[in-house]
UniProtKB/TrEMBL annotation:
This is TIGR03086 family protein. It comes from the Bacteria. One of its GO terms (molecular function) is metal ion binding. Residues 15-137 form the Mycothiol-dependent maleylpyruvate isomerase metal-binding domain. Gene3D superfamilies: dinb family like domain. InterPro entries: CHP03086, DinB/YfiT-like, Maleyloyr_isom, MDMPI_metal-binding. It holds the Pfam family MDMPI_N.
């Protein structure tokens, strides 16, 4: 863990949440059923999955109620306003993480790894939100919400937690980055995503 990891984890999570809010707000009327880099899932389903994952992290941290819908089997239908739906979940998430201490080494998570240090547990939560925000953005023709700096930090998280999760189907096999790949492309490739994905594929 680098010297400034703990100091930055709250900002990383806040930025991931904001990126997810922004791209969801940018979905057009005809965008909800578009295909995404998450094979067989529409934009609506990716939003449901991302929101469900955030709710699951909150439940693990607080000991509260788990999502009523399986995040890995999203229905493709959201009752009511999707923005309000996401806002409620992210507000609850932010409140839960605000109670976690910077130096806490035993933060419960919904991951197979179980408890993790605060910086890594929150980083896993941030990575999930940030990467699914990217999925929605590229599916709906929006700018990438991932910055090079955020991707660099999230790759540290990914290296620490992703390999065991591939066995559960959470991530596809890693792709080799191009020789001149930046941080965003390298992170996406490690998570089994192509940075140049298009709906035509």
């Amino acid at each position: 863990m680098s010297e400034n990891t703990v100091a930055n984890w709250r900002a990383l999570l806040d930025g991931a949440h904001e990126g997810l809010r922004r791209v969801v707000a940018g979905i057009g009327v005809d965008g909800w059923d578009l295909p995404t880099p998450c094979e067989k899932w529409s934009v609506t389903q990716v939003l449901q999955h991302a929101a469900g994952d955030q709710a699951a992290f909150t439940a693990a941290v607080t000991g509260g109620a788990w999502p009523s819908e399986d995040p890995f089997s999203p229905s493709g239908h959201i009752d009511g306003d999707p923005l309000a739906y996401l806002a409620r979940i992210l507000e609850t998430s932010a409140a839960a993480w605000a109670e976690v201490g910077d130096e806490d080494e035993q933060v419960p998570t919904p991951l197979p790894q179980g408890v993790l240090p605060a910086w890594l547990a929150s980083g896993a939560c941030a990575m999930d939100a940030a990467v699914h925000a990217w999925d929605i953005a590229v599916a709906t023709g929006q700018p990438s919400p991932l910055s090079e700096d955020a991707a660099r930090s999230l790759r540290t998280v990914a290296i620490a937690i992703v390999e065991p999760l591939r066995a559960y189907g959470a991530y596809a096999p890693a792709l080799d980055p191009a020789p001149q790949a930046g941080e965003v492309e390298t992170l996406l490739g490690f998570l089994g995503r192509r940075a140049d994905w298009t709906a035509a594929e």
